[in-house]
Amino acid sequence: GWEYDCLTDELYWTDEVHRIHGVDAEFTPTVEDALSFYHPEDRPRVRGAIDRAIEDGEPYDLELRIVTADDDLRWVRVQGRPTREDGETVRLRGTFQDITERKEREQELRLRTRAMDEAGVGISIADATEPDTPLVYVNDAFTDMTGYDREAALGANCRFLQGAETTEAAVDVIRDAIEHEETRTTELLNYRADGTPFWNELTVTPVAAPDGETSHFIG
């Protein structure tokens, strides 16, 4: 964590905060030193938060970028809590966490989601942990191909695409994939929202959660 004495203008960093900034433990930062580590685009946000904490006693919790002494770009979560006496802020205390890995995972997830959204083939994701394995995601190509909008599709089992001429053999392949949690491919006759049939080559693939258990199926 860190602490700033408003009366003496002294700033204290723990060893962990020194490590995140890429400086030796002997480094004694000033407030301006600390601010200089923030990315230029983020610096006004943290400076404004500090000013409001001192002037108005307003705490803050921000996720910002810093550039370390080694010239590495890192994401940090910085929190500040003012201590006030006689209506004035005399001290700021807070935490300083390296959240770079989480931010990178979030960015990767956004990229994957955008790739699925914009894919030219229909993609759907069903929740294996819920009864009847309801759909929790469909992309634009899915809605274009089937004629069902997201409101109609999400929360439903994908069997709503089946109809009178859908063969039991093709459906059995899907059931087998779900039951054995294995990848299976089949061709089956599906029906659009307006009732017109279309042939669909469907591959059902299980997706494992961090604990190794199947959490979803993608198709």
Taking all Cα atoms into account, the compactness measure Rg is: 27 Å
Strand content: 25-35%
Shape: elongated
Can you identify the CATH class of the largest domain?
Alpha Beta
Tell me the structural class.
alpha+beta
The strands making up the biggest β-sheet line up spatially as 2-1-5-4-3
How many domains?
Answer: 2
Oligomeric state, counting identical vs distinct chains: single chain
* Strand runs, count: 10
Give the biggest sheet.
Answer: 5 strands, antiparallel
Q: Indicate the CATH architecture of the largest domain.
A: 2-Layer Sandwich
CATH topology-level name of the largest domain: Beta-Lactamase
Question: What would you say this structure looks like, in words?
Answer:
- With 219 residues, the chain is α+β, with helices and mostly antiparallel strands.
- The protein folds into two domains: 2-99, Beta-Lactamase; 113-218, Beta-Lactamase, CATH 3.30.450.
- 32% of the residues lie in helices and 33% in strands.
- The protein has seven helices and ten strands.
- Strands 2-1-5-4-3 form a five-stranded antiparallel beta sheet, with helices on both faces. Strands 7-6-10-9-8 form a five-stranded antiparallel beta sheet, with helices on one face.
- The longest helix has 19 residues, at 100-118.
- It starts with a strand and ends with a strand.
- The model has no long low-confidence stretch (mean pLDDT 94).
